[in-house]
Amino acid sequence: MNDVMLKLKPARRERLADVLYGQILEQIASGQMAEGAKLPSEARICRDFQVSRPVVREALMRLQADGLVVSRQGIGTFVKSRPSNKLTDFAASAEIASYLRAFEPRLALETECAGLAAMRRTKAQLNQIGDALSALEGAFARGETGWEEDFAFHLAVAAAAGNELFPRLLEELGDILRGSMRMALSLTRQGSDDRRRRVLEEHRKIFMAISGQNSELARLYMRYHLTESRARITGSHGDL
């Protein structure tokens, strides 16, 4: 199998690994690099992109972590899955890497928030989470992306955890979280009805677990929701 050619543009100001990640992802999403295609060697990418080997390895490691490529020892790196070709319509290719990277701290932070919220939430806080969920359902019904309502839902869960530092931490990550939610939900809006139903059902399960004060289930459902959100962006499910 012949190596495919990567058409790379040297980066200047942005984080080099993010830019390299984004350019490779863009070519996978557009179909320029088909599933099963072999990427050029690290040395070739270094030369074409004019960056060091650690930059290339970081980008390739992240592409592999996101399920987009797979490395076969002694053979090379191959395209594993293709995300929606609409992905780069909703975010710059270099931004997508940072948006996906945001899911790692979210998994650690928000999973615990959900568990604590189930144990500590007040009636008023539960109502706030429920109101945010209703607002998200309304946004979907109107054909909107609902990213603002989605952020409000997650912020309400963090507030219900009973520690003011949790919502403050989410607010600190606000720009990148809003960007990732906007991107993910824009893809969801253009996807199937079943995909939209699944997104809402994930939120409802989190709410019901918190309502029932089941901390174990709340953690499980939040982790599942965030993992699925990330998979929907990278195209790991292969659904639209």
UniProtKB/TrEMBL annotation:
It comes from the Bacteria. CDD domains: WHTH_GntR (cd07377). The lineage of its organism: Bacteria, Pseudomonadati, Pseudomonadota, Alphaproteobacteria, Hyphomicrobiales. This is FadR/GntR family transcriptional regulator. Gene3D superfamilies: GntR ligand-binding domain-like, Winged helix-like DNA-binding domain superfamily/Winged helix DNA-binding domain. Keywords: DNA-binding, Transcription, Transcription regulation. Coiled coil: none annotated. InterPro entries: GntR_C, TF_FadR/GntR_C, Tscrpt_reg_HTH_GntR, WH-like_DNA-bd_sf, WH_DNA-bd_sf.
